[in-house]
Automatic annotation (TrEMBL):
GO cellular component terms, A-Z: mitochondrion
Residue ranges of every copy of the AMP-dependent synthetase/ligase domain listed in the record: 109-496
UniProt entry tagged with the keyword Lipid metabolism: yes
Domain Acetyl-coenzyme A synthetase N-terminal residues, every copy: 54-107
Keyword terms of this UniProt record: ATP-binding, Ligase, Lipid metabolism, Nucleotide-binding
Family: Belongs to the ATP-dependent AMP-binding enzyme family.
InterPro entries: ACAS_N (IPR032387), AMP-bd_C_sf (IPR045851), AMP-binding_CS (IPR020845), AMP-dep_synth/lig_dom (IPR000873), ANL_N_sf (IPR042099)
Molecular functions (GO terms): acetate-CoA ligase activity; ATP binding
Protein's name in the database: acetate--CoA ligase
GO biological process: acetyl-CoA biosynthetic process; lipid metabolic process
One Pfam family per UniProt: AMP-binding
Organism expressing this protein natively: Sparus aurata (Gilthead sea bream)
Amino acid sequence: MWLPCGRASRRVVSSFSRRVFRSYFHVEGRRKFNVAAFMPEAAGIQGLSDRSTLQEFSVSNGESFWAAAARHRLSWISPFHTAQDCDLSRGRIKWFEGGKLNVSVNCLDRHVHTCPEKVALIWERDEPGSEVEVTYRQLLEMTCRLGNLLRRRGVKKGDCVTIYMPPCPLAVASMLACARIGAAHNVVFAGFSAEALAERIRDAHSSTVITVNQGVRGGKVIELKKTVDTAVDSCPMVQQVLVAMRTENPVAMTARDVDMEEEMLKEDVVCEPAVMDSEDVLFLLYTSGSTGKPKGLVHTQAGYLLYAALTHRYVFSYHDGDVFGCVADIGWITGHSYSVYGPLANGGTTVLFESTPIYPDPGRYWEMVQRLKINQFYGAPTAIRLLLKYGDQWVHKYDRSTLKTLGSVGEPINTEAWEWYHRVVGDGRCPVVDTWWQTETGGICISPRPSDPDAEIVPGMAMRPFFGIKPVLMDTEGKVLTSNNTSGALCISQPWPGMARTIHNNHQRYIETYCQPYPGTVRCVQGQTCFFVRPQSLNPFVLCQQVTSLLAMAHIVLRRAVTGLGHFSWSFSQFVHRLPKTRSGKIMRRVLRKVVERDLNGLGDLSTLDDPAAVQEIIQGHRELRGQQQQQQQQP
């Protein structure tokens, strides 16, 4: 199965000379390797002398490795009998067959039994200093009440509930309530238009939608209930809309609307968890498709939860008592895996960030780090570059001594931003884990950590595969490329538990997109660069990232995006006032690529664009420049 990371933009070349940072964080890393202390899941594996042999074992004996991890990390109702049954060429992926469990029990009940008053969620509301803490006991009670309410109102095992909410405890409880009763959830980013929301509701066949009256972000009130009302007008399958109150402002309620919080109070705090097979659907999450129709990627119970938990624990060196600060919205896979499921499966304390990086000022992140005593911070390069522009004083104003690990996610981080993040935000002592992964992978696949404590970290490089991940570069004929200074498609050559199982209602599209281009591997499909280190080299880098970093050094270039375009140079440059970005701030590079390829019919899904007019401006400017070029060529 292949997960393409683009085309010409995946060109791997020798890196420019750059400073290489070394990390010396744990004294025990220099002592004899103790596999049980480092990774209890692997304690029973013989012959492991260091982390590299553990990594090798996880790849060469993947079935045994993941079976040991699943038995140790997850709580099972019935044990599995077959760890893996996969055929990537046919798009068949099954993990932990025969096993039965409940995800909400793994995220809540087992922690309530040992530490009921431990804080599970810290809701960092829009106004700084107004955070709300929710313990594991409180979150379990909230989840059970909502699960009972959904059952009473006819939601059954196998149904799909659409959730259109900002990051808040009730949104997490809604996800876990679905998991508790065996329903799948479909979380839609609460910034999408009514049209985009309606398309996802229809494709998921949701008869139930959960939302709030209004959202609050960056000091502004967002009319979420009105967006839902508009969306469901074109969704005849929707029978009920459960509405919670984020603000005190009343909203119009119709016969299909339900006061969720009022009805939850009528329910019992005990909800019998459904017994789920390992491969039952846990959730759908839609990602923009290049063909114009969003893909509803399907993630299942045991494999996804295990992978989210392990990557959360080992990539970020998360330990009991830490406060994990992932600032991604729950509408994205990052929020699913590292704001909700990963931290809660590990019994951790996780932050739900409702605001923006610059509200009420550019010190918001770092004031939050100081106030909440955050230990791991995980954010997007877009925000880091934005904050860099405001200067160091907003960082130095606050105490960040609790920080132990800094993470980057969502797109490549250029060297200048990486170094500022490491030097200024992390005081030069926190490792920066530049993570590569995507909705299809379920969790982080390539990252500088885990590794030996003194292992090199190269700015702007994801570097090392996670346990059980075997990345390869493939040429156009499907052959594995082994040398440096080469081009190819990034694929993953063997299955792992966290990978998406199918595209909802369209398994053939799943096979054609991921499995057929490079049989026997998984092709990466997100338009995001990935830089990883071959075992014998620390040199590979991506050319487009180098160009992006150079542009970042020119202060007149406020926003930049580089995209691959075949093996030829272009004879003119186009300057634009703004780039096409999603509502989360990510540049839609595939749109730029389609414009320069003059494939305007292949722009794909544009529903996530913050301002569609930006695309039209670029198209018009490109036409004018091409016209000028043609006139010049015709002159004698």
